[in-house]
Amino acid sequence: MDFQRLTPELITAFEQIVGSEYILTPQLAEADAYASYGRDHTEDLHFAPEVVLRPANAEEISQIVRLCHEHRLPITARGAGTGLSGGALPIHNGVVLSTDRLNRILKIDERNLQAIVEPGVINQVLQDAVREVGLFYPPDPASKGSCFLGGNLSQSSGGPKAVKYGTTKDYVLNIQVVLPTGEIIWTGANTLKNATGYNLTQLMIGSEGTLGIITCIVFRLLPFPQQNILMLVPFRQEEQAAEAVSETFRAGIVPSGMEFMEREAIEWSARYLNIDISLPEDIRAHLLIELDGQDLDQLYKEAEQVYAVLEKYDVGDILLADTAAQKDELWKIRRNIGNAVRYNSVYKEEDTVVPRAELPTLLKGVKEIGGRYGFKSVCYGHAGDGNLHVNIIRGDLTDEQWNVGLQDPISELFRLCVKLGGTISGEHGIGLVQKRYIGIALPDVNLNLMRGIKQVFDPHGIMNPGKIF
Amino acid sequence: MDFQRLTPELITAFEQIVGSEYILTPQLAEADAYASYGRDHTEDLHFAPEVVLRPANAEEISQIVRLCHEHRLPITARGAGTGLSGGALPIHNGVVLSTDRLNRILKIDERNLQAIVEPGVINQVLQDAVREVGLFYPPDPASKGSCFLGGNLSQSSGGPKAVKYGTTKDYVLNIQVVLPTGEIIWTGANTLKNATGYNLTQLMIGSEGTLGIITCIVFRLLPFPQQNILMLVPFRQEEQAAEAVSETFRAGIVPSGMEFMEREAIEWSARYLNIDISLPEDIRAHLLIELDGQDLDQLYKEAEQVYAVLEKYDVGDILLADTAAQKDELWKIRRNIGNAVRYNSVYKEEDTVVPRAELPTLLKGVKEIGGRYGFKSVCYGHAGDGNLHVNIIRGDLTDEQWNVGLQDPISELFRLCVKLGGTISGEHGIGLVQKRYIGIALPDVNLNLMRGIKQVFDPHGIMNPGKIF
Predict the structure, then answer these.
(1) Quick check: A198 and B203 CB within 8 A?
(2) Which fold has domain A105-223?
(3) CA angle at residue A196 from A193 to A200, to 5 degrees?
(4) Average confidence score pLDDT of chain A
(5) Start-end ranges of CATH 3.30.465.10 in chain A?
(6) Residue of B347 and B288 predicted with greater confidence
(7) Confidence (pLDDT) at B1
(8) Which residues, in sequence order, are CB contacts of B468 under 8 Å at separation 6+?
(9) Cα-Cα-Cα-Cα dihedral of B110, B113, B118, B121, to 10°?
């Protein structure tokens, strides 16, 4: 694509649309604040936007996008910048459009168990708001305290509860979108079922901001599960932990969380949080298992079934969390593994996913590949979904080893995923950093269909260019 | 589109691909058998194919499609022909491709709770096969005893269990598709999560055979719920039955079935099945409510909560089905309403859907519109999903009234759905018969995006032309 550059006239036009308070340029903004719009949570990458706009609503976004469309200016929408694949990075510079001011919960519809929400609402804020009226929005990425729902849609985010409740995509009924041509549409209807034309709603989810900018979302909600049980199960062998996952489901139990953590994942996170834990020396991995529902007696029955499954394995003392505080602490440790790894070292996070029973094979493969190429990894993730986050630690790898040398082992890892029936991203998206590997997951025929769809939506290719494919 | 006609050379080429046993032409086939390929379950419509092909596998389908692509020959894929919107009708003649020989369950993967299935497998056959190993495939359209899973995907089919378990789309992980150019792809991966490029899997589901021919499906499965409770609740006012639906969910209960039936729906179906029921004179409608799970005590607790909700309404004696035979009979009555209506009269079935709490308003609107335009309707459907099947009975309407006069009231009905946040098809698709109304649900911008996508997949427009938009 041949993009144009920003002109003083365009800056004036943008300023008229959003107001002078809500336009940032390198010349006028405070340097650190400005630079933050060129980063997300992906490695240590940075790309400078030419201008940052913070519009208030869909109409302003439509006007901005029309100008970008007309003047062939790249535009990259941005949520909270917590993405892990570089999806929000403005790699062709141009406009960064922040959705932080579209941050209202417009309606919680208790009669229909729905919520109408702007994309800049933080995931946890919605969870809390609906819980106050006894309702439940399940998708809960690790960054739920800061990530925006718009970003959750764009990246098809998951989280621990996905194993029972599905991912973001399973809670979206309808989306208001500003198309790359500036038109504003709703993708569907506010109904649980819809067989009226192609599913543009699901096409938009996971399209990483390349097909349009999300400006309003209609979610479906569930009754809040009032009870839960949380247990931490230590294993003396990593692969046994992975095996126990599939066995649990075969026993007829669908946990609301089934998280795998290598010993180091849990240790690093506890240290990062200043939580004192001391693991017996022979423990190599843990499963964090949550059961939820409306009836505690019922959950204890299920917990007994889980214990029966675990008896087959070489496990240590199972910790059954018996207070809300203890549960919070365990989940906090789990959620902060990513932060702890980031704090310890520059790292690359691979979001591998396979059918869940293939997890032991995948885990073994990760370690074997790491051993052969000489890198260390810390693994954890949503074992119930077969979704393993492989954190490759930079440690003392040279620039050459880090930037180039890892491409072969990562390719091997992804080929293993695909061979096992899986793919290269379960919930983080492809964005920028996995783009070079997408050919491992998808042949040219698939990619050309995607490129064709992109062209239909975005004839000038202005929207988040250079991502996915 | 300018289509070409079939030539003797093409017939020979097709015969070489599928074998002479599996090609039917008007000249050679028995007339009735041939005519059946020009019909489905939609009203009394018929369009004659020029040739019917019954290939054995994806490779044969690919060869057939390549020929059609090259020679601009329309091709319409066909499952069991149970569709209710005319999706399988070859309105531009050409090739009808039957998937009835792709009828194998290739694998039931108990380790991963998945099944790999060909599109010509009957829904009930899959349900029974997975149940034998303790697993559960929930989507259950009324025609489950005869409809094909490929058709279920194409039309985004639902069924009574969708209220708790979702529709077909929620169980499909990956699809093998022969594209309109003849290429064979898989749309995704065999994983519960996938954030790897655009969601071609969900784009294919509900695309009504216009984007490709489904040749293999990977489903996810659940543990089979071992227990259930079924109750039939009679109401003295239709709208109260509709109101009780939303109240049940607000009480925190998610039934596995929540079906609405007008008095006449249940009466006609019982008569059609030769089942003796006698309803008290003042009963106007019923809700059929099913609860399911692994623990019967738990279900009785939930049933008590349902009773507490129902106490607010003017209901008759609640029938709690206490044997498997009684449950089967009640479900049989529900499932055969469509057949009974068809047996009584020519009819048009409108597959209206709204947010569930708007059901009373929709129902009132249906009757008001019917009263004003002078037609009778029998209403029933998946109340828990807000999905109401409105059967307009031909009765003694003239050809003019039936073919032209109903367009205005149906348009009014659909505009009401859209005004209530709903749309014009919940689970039957648009196909041929709802096509003229799609503009009520979707503006031109949406339709043009869909047409653009169609063009990307099918540049010559050969695949099921004339459907949806």
Answers:
(1) yes
(2) 3.30.465
(3) 90
(4) 95
(5) 105-223
(6) B288
(7) 65
(8) A197, A198, B207, B208, B210, B429, B430, B431, B435, B438, B450
(9) 90
**Fold for domain B8-101?**
3.30.43
**Phi-psi map region of B252: left, alpha, beta (phi>0 left; psi -120 to 50 alpha):** left
At the topology level, CATH places domain A227-334 in Alpha-Beta Plaits (3.30.70)
Q: Provide mean pLDDT across the span B429-443.
A: 97
Dihedral angle of Cα B308, B311, B312, B317, to the nearest 10 degrees = 140
- From the candidates A112, A196, A358, which should be mutated to test the interface with B, based on the most B CB atoms within 10 A? A196
> Does the pLDDT at position B278 exceed 90?
no
* Phi, psi at B243, each rounded to 5°: -65, -35
pLDDT band at A33 (very low <50, low <70, confident <90, very high): confident
Q: What is the model's pLDDT at position B392?
A: 94
User: Of A149-158, A323-332, B342-351, where does mean pLDDT reach its minimum?
Assistant: B342-351
- On the 0-12 / 13-18 / 19+ scale of CB atoms within 10 A, A403 is exposed
Parts of chain A belonging to CATH 3.30.43.10: 8-101
Q: Which residues of A touch B386 (CB under 8 A)?
A: 191-193
How many residues are present in chain B? 469
- What was the ipTM of the complex prediction? 0.96
CB-nearest to B198 from A207, A421, A426 is A207
Tokens of A87: 């999806």
pLDDT at position A344 is: 87
Every domain range in chain B assigned CATH 3.30.70.2740 = 345-428
Which residues of chain B does CATH 3.30.70.2190 include?
227-334
B423 with A188: Cβ contact below 8 A: yes
The 3-state DSSP class for residue A251 equals: coil
The CATH code belonging to domain A345-428 is: 3.30.70.2740
Q: In chain B, which residue's Cα lies nearest the Cα of A414?
A: B196
- pLDDT higher than threshold 80 for residue B226: yes
Q: Which amino acid is at A188?
A: G
Q: Tell me what pLDDT residue A277 has.
A: 87
